[in-house]
Amino acid sequence: MNDAIIVNQVSKKFKVHHDKSSTLKEKILFQNRNSHEDRWVLNNINLNIKKGECIGLIGENGSGKSTLLKLMTRIIYPSSGSIEIGGKVSSLLELGAGFHPDMSGLENIYTNASIFGLSRKEIDERIQEIIAFSELEDFIDNPVRTYSSGMYMRLAFSVAINVEADILLVDEILAVGDANFQKKCFEKMKKLKRNKNTIVIVSHDLASLQKICDKVIWIQDGEIKKIGEARKICDEYMLFMGQKEGKKNLSNDIETNRDKEISGESKDENISNNNRWGNKKVEITEVKILDANNFKKNSFETGEKIILEMFYKVNENINNPIIGVQIFTSELINCFGTHTQIDNIDVELKKTGKIRFIIEESRLINGRYFVDVAITDEYGVPCDYHSKLYEIVMYSNLNDIGIYRPKHIWEVK
Amino acid sequence: MQMVESLKEIWDYREMLKSLVRQNLRTRYKGSVLGFLWNFVNPLLQLAVYTIVFSTVLRINIENFYIFLFVGLVPWIFFLGSVQGGTTSIVNSGNLVKKIYFPRAILPIAVVISSLVNMFFSFIVVFIILIVSGIGISISVLIYLPLVILAELLMAIGIALIVSCLNVYLRDLEHILEIVLMGWFYFTPIIYAVEMIPIKYLKIFCLNPMFAVITSFKDILYYKSVPYILPLLITILIGGLLIIFGLTLFNILQKNFAEEL
Known about the structure:
- The structure holds two protein chains of two kinds.
- By secondary structure, chain A is of the alpha/beta class.
- Chain A has helices spanning 24-29, 65-73, 105-115, 120-134, 149-162, 179-194, 206-212, 230-263; strands at 3-17, 36-50, 54-58, 80-85, 89-92, 167-171, 198-202, 215-220, 223-229, 276-277, 282-290, 299-301, 306-314, 322-329, 334-339, 352-359, 367-376, 382-395.
- Chain A has two domains: 3-238, P-loop containing nucleotide triphosphate hydrolases (Rossmann fold, 3-Layer(aba) Sandwich), CATH 3.40.50.300; 271-395, Coagulation Factor XIII, Chain A, domain 1 (Distorted Sandwich).
- Chain A is built from eight helices and 18 strands.
- In chain A, the strands form four sheets. Chain A has a six-stranded mixed β-sheet, sandwiched between helices. In chain A, strands 10, 12, 14, 15, 17 and 18 form a six-stranded mixed β-sheet that branches.
- In chain A, a hairpin with a 2-residue loop joins strand 8 and strand 9 (223-229).
- Chain A is elongated.
- By secondary structure, chain B is mainly α.
- Chain B has one domain (2-23, 64-260).
- In chain B, 75% of the residues lie in helices and 0% in strands.
- Chain B contains 13 helices and no strands.
- Chain B is globular.
- The chains are: A alpha/beta, B mainly alpha.
- Chain A binds chain B through residues 14-15, 22-25, 27, 70, 73-77, 89, 91, 93-94, 97-98, 100, 102-103, 110-111, 114-120, 123, and chain B through 12-16, 18-20, 22-23, 26-27, 30, 95-102, 169-172, 176, 255-256, 258-260.
């Protein structure tokens, strides 16, 4: 047999109980009232995973990808259809299940590995490797309850991954331990892959998936939306998610505009937290992030026009006010910052008004960014400083790395 | 066919069975002062209570009553522990069941085996008492002991399989069984002798599969006589059938365990 996993017309429904009764009295008394809804999580999934393949499962939260993985491990069973598994399965769904806090690390390795179906002999063969992998040599005879959570996870992961089953099922746990340990896990997975073990991974970490997976399956609303080469599918997925977020914000905006018309009031100005400070001589009352068509949104494709629209109110006249803007990555690396003085713009403020900062071509690559806006007096004393209060999500179907993508061409001669 | 497969799978996971039994035995009395000694203290204290009540107050006229009682009580405690522990075995391991695949039947079986090992420890005390009291041990009769233990083990596994999977869907079972087991205890000749049962009811009492088990233990250890083989064989047969039925039921019901827990 060349297939490791055959998923044949599998559908899965969960019963959603409105009021679950599991005692005898309730079961008899409320026979009719025991109402539940069927919620279909997976619809008619067909899938063949060949031996030695490494498959990534992606999709939004609630799309059914984890359910599919659980079906493959046989923790739950399909409502219809069948799943055939060719080989021994090890699953890394939740780590450390079955650990006993009072038993030592070593004893727990034996117990945990036996739950994965290893014999005493097989565990003995692997024990050195498991301990070495976990880097817990000095603590291995201490009870597990004395471990830190990081140590606990490392031990659990080491056992699960060293089972070296024919089929390894992984759910979103590439984020165990520190950077070094993660790297080691990653190398181990690659090694398993080279050894022709079959791997199925559920993850939101698209970058890691692209590094290790041959194929990616995109699951949407309980159905397979696309299967294909990892990079291509991940890109399409990212683009889809970005556009979806854009649409969502658009509709939110229409909603809030309508609300405003009804109340006739602008929104509450009292933002009192660490993200805003200043002497309030001039206030920034509202900031809107708009696209080229003046629609409010906060996800943009790389290269798109972005407009920051700031509404202000002058409480006390100041000379030569300065207006500034800064953009940070989600890791708070400053990408770009400027203000009106740098750009030699003379600012004269009316009683109230708006300022538009127009980025003709946004050159930031995929990711989330924070925006600072501020108005200061001529000496730089802040009147109103909004720090990281606004967020922009950039998306792109390109896989540039770094922070920004300068306009560029290649010449090869 | 499915039966053979699930039995084979349980066999493949025998290391897990061993680990769980070891863990059960080692962590059961963890943190208590007496620790492992509770395995001996608990049955001895029960013995003390029953002996005081039935030889001082109710005055059952049996020679060496405490020994008579002990050789029946120890196997009953094994059975009781298996059924009660088996009932909650799946529900209590919900964490594991929801996260990792393994043949679920391992859980109730591990409880039964743990109880069995505890019984073996108690038997050390039984043998010491038998020798010290002067009743002694008859080696030629003792060879029947494994047969009796086998009969009880099969019964215990069969029932534990059935109640463990039912309890996932009907948590009342745990409490219903408390009453059933109390009744079962008194309708089995543990604290009284078979001769004390009125003849007209004896046939009904014999329908109880534990009847043959307990009386055989008493025959072998207390009376030092060869037990009746036929009732024992019938009990073994019943035990085997219970296991087949239990596994079949278990295989059907286990599919929704993760969702019900």
